[in-house]
Fold this protein.
Amino acid sequence: MSERRDDHQEPVYDRALLLHGAKRNDVLTLREVQQYGADSFSDPDYIQLYGMVPAEWYARGIRLLGRTAVECTRDSLGDRIGRDVASVIASLPSQTQFTVIDPFAGSCNTLYWILRHVARSTGIAFEFDPQVYELSRRNIAGLDRTIELTQGDYHSLLPARALPPDHAIIVFVAPPWGTALDETIGLDLRRTSPPITKIIGSIGLMYPRHKILFATQVYEKVNPDSLAQLETMLDWSELRVYALNIAGRNHGILLSTKGWKP
C-alpha cells in the first residue's frame, strides 16, 4: 500500500499507487508524472519518452495511465536497447530490410528507439488493452517514426501478417512479469504472462524461413534454469545488463537469434 507524507497530504507517488492503487487506470497529469519521478527516483524528469522530458511530451498531447508510467521503458533504457540491437544486426548484409515487431506495445517507446537506430526498418505493434491502445495510438501519431499499432492479441493477429520473405525480423519481447521475478533467483522466463519461452517458440514457428533477432527485456538476475531452457531453442544469445539504477535493480536485454548467428 502506498504511504502518505503525513495526515494532510496526498499519497507518495510510487509503484504501488500507480501500478496497483488508485491511480492505476487514471490518465496522469503532468504534475503527477513529475511527482512519481521525484518520489520514486528523486528525479521529476525520470519518465522521458520519445526523446523528450515530461514537460515536452505532455505539451505535445502525450498522455499516460498510471500503470503505463510504471511499466514503460524510459528513454535511457530504450536508447541502449536500440543501440545494442543495431550492433547485432550490423553483421547482416548492408541492404537488409527489417520488420520490427512489438507484441506487447504499451507506450511503444522501446519500439520507437529500435526504429531510430535500425536503418531500413518498419514497426508493427500489438496492444491488447483497449485503454492503453487508444492512448498510445494518439501518442505515437505525431512521432518521427511510423508505427502500425493494432488493438488485439498478437498471437491471433500476427500469423495473418505475411512479412516480405527478404526481410529480417526483430522482435522486442517484454510481456508482463507478474510473479515471475524473484529477487534472489532472478526473473524466471517461464513464468511471465505469457511465458517468454512460449512467445519466442511460437514466433519462431510462425516465421521459420526468416532470420530473427529477439530482444527480450530482462532483470539484472535471470533464473539460470529458465535461461538454459531458452538457449536450447536458439542459435545464439548474449545477456547485457545496463547500469542505469542502483546495483541489484537494473534491467537488461537478452539478445538472441534464430535462423542465423551474428
